[in-house]
Predict the structure.
Amino acid sequence: MGEALYLLLGLSAGGTALAALTWGLTRLLRGVLPRRAAFYLWLLVLVRFCLPVYAPAVCRVPVPAPTVHLQPAQTGTPDGEALPAPGAPSQKAALPAAGTALLVWAGGACAMLFWHTGGYLRLRRSLLRAAREPDAAAREMLAQLAGERARVRLVVSGQAGSPMLLGLIRPVIVIPEGCAGQTLRYALLHELSHLRRGDLVVKWTALLANALHWFNPAAYLVRRAVSRACELACDEDVVRTLTGPERRGYAETLLLLASGCHARAGVLTTPMCQDKARLKERLVQIMHYRKNTMGVVLAAALALCLTACGALAGPAAPEKQDAPAPAALRAEAPASETPDVPDIPDAAAPDGQADAAEAAAALAWPLTAEAKVTASFGTRAHPVTGTAITHSGLDLAAETGEAVLAAADGIVSDAGYDAARGYYVALAHGNGLVTAYYHLSGAAVAAGDAVAAGDTLGYAGATGWATGPHLHFEVQQDGTPVDPMPLLGAE
């Protein structure tokens, strides 16, 4: 859960930074940058908000995982309450902070998606319920402009305040009553341009990005910027094929439709005229349109390259590295953060003279049955960023609540809860040998308890930085992690 939360926050921070860069570029190159190029710049911002796209590790600035200092040996939860066994009545819900944050985020994202999707469906129903088929002249004009094989439907609705396109799978152009002649022609040119450019997909993507980052004010500003850039780019696409008098007629059509626009069209349609505050900007662009020169093309290419580099160089999710055994971390913690804890003597070896290798050879499997190893000891690719990290133990597949067993006789040197490891237990077996068990759903032992091989230490779970229920089993010899597999008698 913690890894997912860091990934989300990394996407949000990277998207915000790229949005600021894009806004600065579009302001700096105002009047020079083509509207279509500005639209593509904002599309890159949407991609950065939605997808964890990163450059190779050599071009990326990693975000370090936070350093975690374990508290002194304790029993049960951080509040000092004893942990119940699975199935027993719980006195207090044990939900990590990362899990709570993800639940709040998911609730906000779903609420936003449901609100806007519900509004879109109500609008579509009201428009089509009052719709009628257009006359023959309108149908003939649509076929002329879109082609005979165009898969788009044209309807006339008294509920429409402006011509608009809606419907991802079955697109429909809705025009208001009284829209005919040149006004109809310009309206169809505008909406067909939206259809060819796939702007409805962009609108839905912008809503998705806003919902994923509903907690970030920049996401709302980006959605509005994308909508504005979408309309300006569409106008540019239409007027580049028109003559001077036709551009004037197109501008007059916008003014006419703006004066009669009386209803909101939502964020998931492409109304020809809805935002009256931006009408002046659109009219100025239409009347002063000029074809792109080589300098304009180069400026657009430079802006796109800079923004693309910004998208790839955004902060990656923090690289999760399994920390050393709790006892070792406690020894490294500053005195101001954790009080001194007396050392726990190592458990005696079976003969009192056996060395660490002989004691280690007796390690038993830490689960009730030999489980699948989902992540081995050593270097592996990070599951999110793809970079190489060091994995200091074994990840074993386990069901939530499955008993976790002591690998050998020993003394519980530490047991408690940590944000990264979740509920954990560490055993000292003598001769500097320590085994640790992470991501438990609960512990069944306390610090100082003597246990025998096969005794239940706790129960498998997915607490801490875990993406699913499993057991992280770690072995240290004199403070250095070693591969548990040879010590378990496995190849």
